[in-house]
Write a structure and sequence with these properties.
Length: 173
C-alpha cells in the first residue's frame, strides 16, 4: 500500500497550476498560502505548453502542484488531456520541466494499471518525484482530490496543499 504523506507550502518555492474547470477555483485561489505562485490555465488546447512556459520563468522552484479534474492515467487540463496515451506528443516539453516535485490533484489519476503507468512515464520524462491521487471523486472536497496517496521517487517536502475548509480527513484503508 502506498505511503500517505501530507504536503505544505511553508518556505517552499511553489508553483500552483489550476484548471479553470475545477469547481469554485476562485475560492481555492484565495485560500492558497501566500508562499505559492498561482496560475490559472487558459483553455486553448495548449495547456501543457502554458505550464512549460511558466516553468521556464522560474529558477529554484521546489514543487509544482497541478489542480485539475482527472481519471485513471489522465489529467484534464482545459481543452487538453495529459494522458498516458498523449505523453509521447508532449515528451519534448515535459523533459524541460526542471522541478524536483510534481503533485497531481486529479481524482484517480494514479488509479489502476493505466494510472500507475502514466505516473511512472511522467516520472521518467520529467525526472521529477511525483505524487498523485488514487482517490475516487466521492472522496474529494469540491471535486478535487486534496490528499495524495501514490508516490514515485523521493518526495522532498511535507505537502498539504490547502487549509480548512478545503481539506477533509480521508481514511486510508
Amino acid at each position: 500500500m502506498p505511503k500517505y504523506q501530507e504536503v505544505s507550502f511553508h518556505d517552499l518555492r511553489t508553483l500552483v497550476i489550476i484548471d479553470d474547470a475545477v469547481e469554485d477555483f476562485q475560492t481555492l485561489v484565495k485560500v492558497l498560502l501566500p508562499s505559492s505562485d498561482v496560475i490559472i490555465l487558459q483553455p486553448n488546447n495548449k495547456e501543457v505548453e502554458q505550464i512549460t512556459q511558466k516553468l521556464s520563468k522560474y529558477t529554484g522552484l521546489k514543487s509544482l502542484h497541478i489542480i485539475s479534474n482527472g481519471s485513471p492515467g489522465c489529467l484534464y487540463l482545459g481543452k487538453s488531456h495529459l494522458s498516458l496515451f498523449a505523453l509521447n506528443s508532449y515528451a519534448s516539453q515535459l523533459k524541460t520541466w526542471s522541478v524536483p516535485n510534481v503533485f497531481l490533484y486529479g481524482c484517480n489519476v494514479a488509479a489502476g494499471s493505466v494510472g500507475k503507468q502514466f505516473i511512472q512515464r511522467l516520472h521518467l520524462l520529467t525526472s521529477s518525484n511525483i505524487g498523485a491521487s488514487i482517490w475516487d471523486e466521492k472522496d474529494t472536497v469540491k471535486g478535487v482530490c486534496l490528499q495524495l496517496n501514490y508516490f514515485i521517487g523521493e518526495i522532498n517536502s511535507n505537502l498539504t496543499l490547502l487549509p480548512e475548509p478545503w481539506q477533509r480527513k480521508i481514511t486510508v484503508f
